[in-house]
Amino acid sequence: MTREEARTILTQMTTSESLLRHARTVELVMEAYATKLGEDAEKWAVTGMLHDADYQAYPEKHPNVIVNLLRERGEVEIAHAISAHYTHWGVSYDTLLDKALLACDELTGFIVACAQVRPQRLEGLEPKSVIKKLGQKSFAASVDRDEVRIGAELFGVDMKEHIAFIIQVLQEHQLELQLQPQTGAQV
């Protein structure tokens, strides 16, 4: 599946600006990890882009609608990774793609939330600040901290290095993601 085909599927089911941005951020992080690890960057990017594609339109059926659609199109590996991107669903983590999506989804969303409350956004955001915010249960309370921890463990990455990598990827795209420092903010 091409990214263009994936984007068409995503925009048919998702109109929420925040969900579209989340899809884009996870797409970018997954693509960067694939490149770093010598994996199929297009497949990893599409997986990141589509992981929540059905969430807005079919919240009670998420992720089954997108998973079934991908299986029908022969995208079995992507479908499996998406079906496994939340540990409570009880799906096995068979491939590095499965583990990467779990490791990147919640944490990428959390890092974006951290950036949004700072005038300088991503500029100067340090892993230690993100880790400190993870300890504050009231901040971005919907983010499942266990998912973040388990994802990093399964993916085999050091949490600080993982956070730094995600921040770097997001910084490279901060204009597109509208996460650049606010005008007049101290950088």
Automatic annotation (TrEMBL):
Output the Gene3D superfamilies linked to this UniProt entry.
Hypothetical protein af1432 (1.10.3210.10)
The source's domain of life comes to: Bacteria
Q: Which residues belong to any copy of the HD domain?
A: 20-100
Q: Which Pfam families match?
A: HD
What InterPro entries is this protein classified in? HD_domain
- Recorded protein name is HD domain-containing protein
Organism from which the protein derives = Pontibacter populi
